[in-house]
């Protein structure tokens, strides 16, 4: 039965000659998924077979062996005027194995070629349909041929001999669309296509097509999106995620141009734009968590806990998990790690405001995604400068990041949250190694009130946010580290996170010692947390040694005390602080004595831990000298004055009056540390992290029916 195309605005109806009106109806949006996948129109009666959409009939011609344009010279023009049936096209491609694809390879190559050509068309409907068809091609061919080599995939899609030219044309067209004055919806669709292309393989470094994305760079287009206020608002989130993924393509195997270019960006509006996108995404996560927390602690639950105490608090708060956003965190890491100029963005102040609960939705909608993975609302990213209100608390990207870290570091039992916590500590490591970052962290003229989230624990009350003082930002970093140390002493011990945490503290103290910065901080909380950590290691020696080298962590902790003992007089705020350090060591001497006995026992026996235990033994020399010097003096003072239990002030008096007879050893290298290096130590971690992010992005890339209809509606008046 012959058919003709009747163009009515955007929607094209199939007019069947000599058919009744009921047979000419187009499918409604409520068509079942089965019918959509098969490309069927609704059944008109029980006795008649369902009709196929015109576009599906044309797809079937492509999947036949003959050239579809052989009998219809306008075949390709007509195809791109049709609304794409993504479900059918992808399902058809996925149903073919490699051999079957090779039989129709010429037609697939021709489809790819004409898609690329259609991107240069003035008719916007054709551009939209070409972009969506390309996405279906990339996904469909990869899905069925996961075991095929990258070269085979390239050959199936575009023909290996023409691949370089086809991808050059494709990337140039995408670059023009992204940088041009055209529709924002088309720009969004271009970014979705690029995200689709980058994430079609689980391991992006095995996606050989990305070699052409390296050669034909769209780096400048991404920067333009981030530097422009209007485009950043609508596309900044996708642009930043795309850049983070491209930076991780074969980053250890070859020279990645995106790494090189990102490392030398010095354009202030671009860096600010990137920081604003990352900051608003993290702010959105923090807001969602806070809303969920308030929801959980209100109403009946609040009444119940007030009746029965806090015995269920830990269980209740485990349900507060908001899905982490590793993609945006990876983008922050790459910016901090690769570009020293980005460090200045961390400190730029702006008023602390909450993102509206109901964000403005972009024209091209995305599917519902888990909390924490959605981009922030556009209105929050549309302006580079926000009006300052003297009544508003100041904030910056670093504060937002610290608040985010305080949430994800609470519960590290989930793999995603464990990865996020690890990445947060790696980012903090990079920040604390940077001289400029250390300078503004310790700047007395840059004081902020940072309300970190604290894990509910039975033995302590929840701190009131209004009681948090305004202090240099380094205090918030130290608070975060202390909080982590105190709250994660468990049998499933996160050794890697503890190592990083203590190293961050060490680097901050090294800077304070070097610059003689006397920080007014509650150092006793840190000392108490570190001593309790040593106590935990001792109590769980057998269990922990089966999995971890606890002596390495113990050595780091003891050397932190050695830093305070040896150089504390140069960076502790007052002489009283130095006295309090000795008081804490003497007061908790039993833990240091037990640690010495344990490491001495292990170091005198043969075994794998002999050498690391021996290092701890040597590091304890000054701590033991303090204990052995002051304990007899304190006991003598108590005996002479007939006091059974001395007060803190009395012990401090003994300490102050007996410094002159104390002999300590000068220990070398206490203020030295190994600088962070991603390769080779962190390579495996980032490989798995990027794989996880890629899977999540692929799942959330939106090219669904709703976005198709919106695009077609938008462009229906243009043509």
TrEMBL record:
Subcellular location: Membrane
Keyword Ion transport: no
GO CC term, one of those recorded: cytosol
InterPro entries: ARM-type_fold, ARMD3-like, ARMH3_C
A Pfam family: ARMH3_C
Residues annotated as domain Armadillo-like helical: 465-701
Major place of residence: membrane
Keywords from the UniProt entry: Membrane, Transmembrane, Transmembrane helix
PANTHER family for the chain: ARMADILLO-LIKE HELICAL DOMAIN-CONTAINING PROTEIN 3
Protein name: Armadillo-like helical domain-containing protein
Organism of derivation: Coregonus suidteri
